[in-house]
Predict the structure of Trafficking protein particle complex subunit 9.
Amino acid sequence: MEPDVSIETSSMIRIAVLPIGDVPPSLLRDYHSMLLRHHTIPLSTISSFYTEHQKSPFAHQPWDAGSLRFKFMLGGAPPSPWEDFQSHRKILAVIGICHCPSSPDLDLVSDQFNAACKGYSSALVERCFAFWPSDSQLEDGKKRENLVLFPPSDRSTQEFHLQTMMQDIAASLLMEFEKWVLKAESAGTILKTPLDSQATLSSEEVIKAKKRRLARAQKTIGDYCLLAGSPVDANAHYSTALELARLTADFFWYAGALEGSVCAILVDRMGQKDVSIEDEVRYRYNSVIVHYRKSFIQDNAQRVSPLTFELEAILKLARFLCRRELAKEVVELLTNAADGAKSLIDASDRLILYVEVARLFGTLGYQRKAAFFSRQVAQLYLQQENRLAAISAMQVLAMTTKAYRVQSRVSASRHSLSNETESGHADSGKMHHQSVVSLFESQWSTLQMVVLREILLSAVRAGDPLAAWSAAARLLRSYYPLITPAGQNGLASALTNSAERLPSGTRCADPALPFIRLYSFPLHPSQMDIVKRNPGREDWWAGSAPSGPFIYTPFSKGEPNDNNKQDLVWVVGEPIQVLVELANPCGFDLRVDSIYLSVQSGNFDSFPLSVDLPPNSSQVITLSGIPTSVGPVVIPGCTVHCFGVITEHLFRDVDNLLLGATQGLVLSDPFRCCGSPRLRNVSVPNISVVPPLPLLVSQVVGGDGAIVLYEGEIRDVWIKLANAGTVPVEQAHISLSGKNQDSVISIAYETLKSALPLKPGSEVTIPVTLKAWRLGSGETDATAGKSASGSMVRNVKDGNSPSLLIHYAGIFWPVGDLETNKSSVPPGRRLVVPLQVCVMQGLSFVKARLLSMEIPAHVGESLSSLANGDGNPLDEAVGYGQRDRLVKIDPFRGSWGLRFLELELSNPTDVVFEISVSVQLEKSSNEENLSVNCAAEYGYPKTRIDRDYFARVLIPLEHFKLPFLDDSIFSKDLQSDGYTGSRNPSFSERNTKAELNASIKNLISRIKVRWQSGRNSSGELNIKDAIQAALQSSVMDVLLPDPLTFGFRLARNGYGSPGKLDVKESDTSIQASASKNTVIAHDMTPMEVLVRNNTKETIKMNLSVTCRDVAGKNCVEGTKATVLWAGVLSGITMEVPPLEEIKHCFSLYFLVPGEYTLVAAAVIDDANDVLRARAKSDLPDEPIFCRGPPFHVRVHGNA
């Protein structure tokens, strides 16, 4: 049998192409390719070379449309025993190829060519083409038969020269055909086949042979007419041969003549196909097959069988009908042909048959059937046990890998290259179900393993270590669950042995072990967040959500992302990390010499890493690298150096494998086999690299641990910022985020601003003042009874601490430049500095209440500070020392109605606290309702609270009286009670309420309760809520002054220098002034009563003064009076201007030494709404009675 046969093969002239002399293989292939261009020579082009010596036997030669067809046999071919039966099997011409630079002796070349031609006795034309002769060879005038020199020239000239020579050969062959036909018609010839030679040649056979000679001669003449390009003449001779062969029952030659007639029909139609021709060809070839089979049955006893011609006829018909519409018929023909292979004697015939069947099945698209017969071909090659046969077997098996889904990644990538190009980068991470099925089909596992083993065996025999390594890698990677541990070790040894025969650094497209999947892309730490710069705004960070490393987040505004991928931003020069997981599901230790990220874009340097994986284990490793230039970065997988060969491991392949495992299409999940948990699919994001950016690194001075503060503690924390990048920081802005932002009292932003630009390697320290917040009730209960370390860990993990947000950027871009260079603006960064504050429970409130106290005042010679008109006495006028500020008494009120806020505190901690109270006073002067304030702060003695003890702290409220009464304070109450009349309130209800709330807040803000523990721990108690609750019902009494205030003083001779009240004997520093204020019995003592109007309207009143003894009895009235007076003590009618004071003078004469009390009282006539609201009077005609506080007078006896 012959390969690549078709119906038109009978019309092709076979020409042997032989290398003469030393011709390099590459040049021989080049010269052969030049010949292949001239496989068809039109008859119209050979007329100049053709000479008609006598009348041509080809009466119907188509000179205008006909042609001669050549089939070049490189290296020649051995003579066929069937040349007489089919003339196209003869080598009818020989062409020698000589490369003159390699063969300078042309005589030797000619002799070698003549010797080579002797092996082809059937050749009618012989030519030797000598290319690139030298000048001396060209100048040699010696003529050599059949040697044609091709002078050195360009390629087109040589091809034209070769075309001319081929036309000459075609004309020579045509003339030789004419001679042979004329000779055969006149003299006749004896034509035999191997079938005839095996006959006994009895007398009867000789007679039958003579009768068949004429039919065979006509069939052979028809063959030469067909080779000469005259199908009409050929068909006429074939028709005669068919009639004669039928008469002599020569079925074998009958089938041959019928085959020739079909070829003549197709050549005459010039390749045109229609239904009628198809039917005719099908009918005639079925007859051909039947007659070949008849000849086989008739000659059953012969050792040479015509079965090969029958099978060739079946293949020719199948090739002619081979298209998808006639697939059923073609498959039936090929199946019959494959069944006939069992009866073939020669193994090479079976090889050719299986090759042709596989080709035709592949043409139909039946890849699995084609792969099956290709394996049959490979097995026949492997039976020969030589290297060349093993190479052929390996190449044939390589063609079957696609059908069996075990192809090398090189062939698979070629097949999918166009699809990937069309799908684009956006779809590269998608896993399609069809791709999983195409890569892995578990029901084919056994057959796939057999194919890979055959490829491995053939590669080892062929001496191709790379192909052997690839086959072993695919076998081990895909079918490790079906391979025993011993088999796995054997494959590992095969991989190692193959790698030893390969040069160092060899790469293979097929990965072996380990399995590698993408684990995660770690987010940038909070110190490396990247923020898009918002062009056109000074606050460029506004409106751009920080992205970690990701610019797009589900919470940020912007265009939707079509490919559902996040955008990952890397910075030139800054190391990055990618987590991958490796799995070794086999039973041997796996040594990975190096593994690193595979980057195709060329702008990334990867750092290799070596890993040792025990049997049946997995491990998550960190791969790192540094971006080197701006642009996109594509990371399809990892590059691995394992088993001596470098391979590429794609993340997508492992994702497909894991998807196939979940759907039952893959034998097992290698990661689950190693005990690794199931992970969600992690896709490779779109990575882009931006120019170098500054990089601030923060550090808390003193350590990065939690800052432990007690509730209300105030402490300064120093944050050190260092620029670890390669670009200076040009812009920076500090803001707060998180919970308890009000705990950050101050940030030294100017310190950071003054350090700009912060060059690479520079540092700046920023002080931040913190105040510990107050723990909630739940937090207080949870931390009760716990150690400091336990509560610290819980508090930090709760995320209650605030954070500093520092947005910074490199090169400064003016607003105008930002608008014009939006695409080239590098992003900025956000540094998150968490202030890890652990707030411990400090002092706790037990309760708070409002207290009233009464401490009598002494009468002296001091002038009232009311004369200054400031409404509040100064410290120098009230007569108290530094230690007496806590009980500061108004001389016009004594201690009547003095109020204190008592806070009861407990100390549940393990430390000792000292509590101090300070009050901020205001001195105001009223001019045209404008207030100018100046503040003074007074401290009081400290209170110590030991651990697990309670203490009470008093906070005085007397300093917070309003300077005067105003109707605006009571406008709300007056309007609700209906006493407004025609008067319009000075403020609306809303403004009144707001003013009152502002007064309360002002009162609370001026009271500071601070604590200190140890040397460095100090803070402030949050007493706002406690004061608010305690003053809820008595806030009006605390804030509002009395309408009238009364005071007494001594007036020696009507004049006196201001003295001090309430002189204490223990105070030796004021003994001299105390003697001046002494009241002596039996002496007339001039006194003054001072009355101040605290409202903005004039008050008319009746004043009275009463003196009482220690028993509380009136001493100036009755028959037993002990005090005499001069002046008026009752019924004194007075009119006090607004916010001013008046005095009334009188004298007292004490008869008995002792303790006395002076009390002043007044009845206000025609009281206005303000006075009635302050007195809480509901009746409009009810008089308003005001009484001052008692003043103490100590009367001494005279010595």
About this structure: Residues 511-521+566-690 form a domain with the Immunoglobulin-like fold (CATH 2.60.40.10). The CA atoms of residues 1099 and 1136 lie 5 Å apart.
